[in-house]
């Protein structure tokens, strides 16, 4: 099973209907927890999830809404005596923050944690594929993550039978690419690997696109609406329209918007803004929602190769930075309408397990952390 469980969707502070961040990805036997904010342990309980299957924890940055749940999760791993190592990925410059959270209180510590701090271009192989981390643009050191399953081939039983390939010969064919005069291509079809991308607090930068490229499921922050684009740029965040534009330019199949500022009473405005930019599937995240990874692409569908990080491809065309907020009104907006025969593919919104965000949420209190000087590339 390949499925994302959304544990929290608020930015900065929780609301009555949105918990701090938290996202659990089940990718067959690889189970990864991303950005456990405050209250994540309880949200997992409400979602019917245990910590025992956890294999990895990925932290994008050490702001409280993305990491304050770490002490509870670590202590629960110890309490439940998870029998295998749990790898923890976090920005290398935040090691002191991790150490403090790791030992926030006294507890009987038997957790097998394997710390793997990440830096620019970090890559590691997992049971699910290659996990990559790339730096983003925020007020503190922040990384996005990408999980890429390798491409493979799917054996076709009818072709195997037609060529008389059976038993151990199938294994030999898969290992060596040949069994006698029969090659792997004779009895199989391409099986494109699947891609998952996780992009939290950031302003637009080349690595946002590199992480999102060809993703089957993109989880991306959309803290602000276009009316507050200037503030979004100042504090290192995205608008819903910018997130959707990234999805469109990057060939994303399913776009999941999350990390909503509590200043907006009507969360459907995020969906409306995103629809103007992206005609694929859009999910407006709600707490305790379960979102399946889309079915594997058909072999005949063109599949984009793995992108190189922006800092390694000097010849890769850079996408221009968005115009300042005061110029946006003057820029004509040309959404890409979906052809009439694609109406059935109008973005869907899976029903959440609990009540949707209500218009009565309190307004946002000022206080986002100002951004450090932005990076414009290598």
Write the layout of secondary structure elements.
Blueprint: E1 2-8, E2 22-27, E3 30-34, H1 40-46, E4 56-58, H2 64-67, H3 70-79, E5 86-91, H4 95-102, E6 113-118, E7 122-126, E8 129-135, E9 143-148, E10 152-155, H5 157-162, H6 168-176, E11 178-179, E12 182-183, E13 188-191, E14 195-199, H7 206-212, E15 217-221, H8 229-235, H9 240-249, E16 254-258, H10 268-275, E17 281-284, E18 290-292, H11 325-328
Parallel strand pairs: 3-4, 4-5, 5-6, 14-15, 15-16, 16-17
Antiparallel strand pairs: 1-2, 1-18, 2-3, 7-8, 8-9, 9-14, 10-13, 11-12
Descriptive report:
There is one protein chain. This protein is an alpha/beta fold. The protein has 2 domains: 254 residues, Ribonuclease Z/Hydroxyacylglutathione hydrolase-like (Metallo-beta-lactamase, Chain A, 4-Layer Sandwich); 36 residues, no CATH class. 21% of the residues lie in helices and 22% in strands. The strands form 4 sheets. A 7-stranded mixed beta sheet has the order 6-5-4-3-2-1-18.
- SS strand fraction: 15-25%
**Overall spatial form:** globular
Number of helices: 11
Tally of distinct domains: 2
Question: How far is the N terminus from the C terminus?
Answer: 38 Å
Catalogue the unreliable spans.
Answer: 300-304, 311-318, 320-335, 337-378
CATH architecture term of the largest domain? 4-Layer Sandwich
CATH topology of the largest domain: Metallo-beta-lactamase, Chain A
- Give the topology string: H per helix, E per strand: EEEHEHHEHEEEEEHHEEEEHEHHEHEEH
What does the radius of gyration come to? 22 Å
Structural class: alpha/beta
CATH superfamily of the largest domain: Ribonuclease Z/Hydroxyacylglutathione hydrolase-like
Q: Could you tell me the mean pLDDT?
A: 85
Strand order of the largest sheet: 6-5-4-3-2-1-18
Helix amount, in percent?
10-25%
Major sheet description:
7 strands, mixed
CATH class of the largest domain: Alpha Beta
- Give me the count of strands: 18
